């Protein structure tokens, strides 16, 4: 299957601690996946599920940081799933890879071993570009990964809510200008929200938001200080370099 995907590259993440094969063209893992992993509050023994995992970048990065977890990588694309399996083996990470549409009915999730109320943590980087405002890529895989239908967000959050245990955590990354949609969707069944904006530089509005939400949580929403990716000269900030190298997690990952 991998041979059918065309040319692939091997890229280093987490300061070289994680190496991933991924398609040379189309959707490619980058900073978003590593930031998502750094925001994930997993502990040894947790059942951690990565929705829309692609080649496994975020889920495998969590497993590199937290010993004692076997991430479940859920991806609709069979070719990317094969790469995820190969990447897990190459990085000596025990992972389960499921070819599954995140918006599938509960019975299909159960048949794949993802029963209701059975998971500690779900992390996800859903397609988040508004189709009405963004021209879809001519590359079909890239378009699927980036452009959301009207029901995409609700469907992904509903699936996470269904499989999470009470008190389990959902962690996601989304475009900053769509935060109102995320907060509305999370209002059904989630609380204790923590939100961290991500800025390209200190002078620019946030481009992304990382959000942690607890199933059944009741604590007030907490807005954290933003993470600035680049300094005034356009170089990666020290904080961003530390996070992206896997040297420490983001505050959302703290208990």
Quick synopsis:
This protein has one domain: Rossmann fold.
Structure description:
- Helix 1 runs parallel beside helix 2.
- Strands 3, 4, 5, 6, 9, 10, 11, 12 and 13 form a nine-stranded mixed sheet that branches. A two-stranded antiparallel ribbon has the order 1-2. A two-stranded parallel sheet has the order 7-8.
- It starts with 7 loop residues before the first strand and ends in an 11-residue tail after the last helix.
- It is of the alpha/beta class.
- Helix 5 (140-146) links the parallel strand 7 and strand 8 (147-148).
- It has a single domain, classed as Rossmann fold (3-Layer(aba) Sandwich), CATH 3.40.50.
- It has helices spanning 31-38, 57-65, 78-90, 106-111, 140-146, 152-163, 179-186, 238-244, and strands at residues 8-13, 18-23, 48-51, 72-75, 96-99, 119-124, 129-130, 147-148, 164-175, 190-201, 206-215, 222-223, 227-230.
- 27% of the residues lie in helices and 29% in strands.
- The chain has eight helices and 13 strands.
- Residues 136-147 have low confidence and may be disordered.
């Amino acid at each position: 299957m991998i041979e059918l995907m065309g040319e692939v590259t091997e890229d280093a993440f987490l300061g070289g601690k994680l190496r991933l094969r991924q398609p040379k063209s189309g959707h490619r893992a980058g900073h978003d996946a590593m930031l998502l992993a750094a925001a994930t509050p997993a502990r040894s023994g947790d059942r951690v599920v990565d929705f829309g995992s692609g080649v496994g970048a975020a889920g495998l990065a969590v497993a590199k940081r937290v010993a004692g977890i076997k991430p479940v990588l859920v991806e609709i694309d069979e070719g990317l799933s094969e790469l995820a399996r190969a990447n897990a083996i190459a990085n000596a990470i025990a992972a389960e890879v499921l070819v599954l549409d995140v918006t599938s009915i509960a019975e299909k999730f159960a048949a794949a071993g993802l029963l209701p109320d059975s998971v500690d943590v779900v992390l996800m980087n859903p397609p988040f570009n508004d189709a009405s405002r963004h021209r879809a890529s001519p590359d079909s895989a890239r378009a699927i990964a980036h452009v959301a239908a009207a029901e995409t967000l609700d469907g992904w959050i509903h699936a996470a809510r269904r499989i999470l245990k009470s008190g389990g955590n959902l962690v996601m990354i989304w475009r900053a200008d769509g935060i109102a949609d995320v907060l509305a969707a999370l209002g059904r069944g989630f609380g204790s929200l923590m939100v961290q904006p991500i800025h390209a530089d200190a002078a620019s509005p946030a481009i992304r938001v990382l959000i942690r939400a607890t199933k059944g949580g009741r604590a007030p929403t907490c807005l954290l200080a933003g993470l600035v990716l680049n300094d005034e000269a356009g170089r990666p900030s020290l904080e961003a370099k530390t996070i992206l190298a896997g040297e420490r997690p983001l505050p959302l990952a703290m208990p």
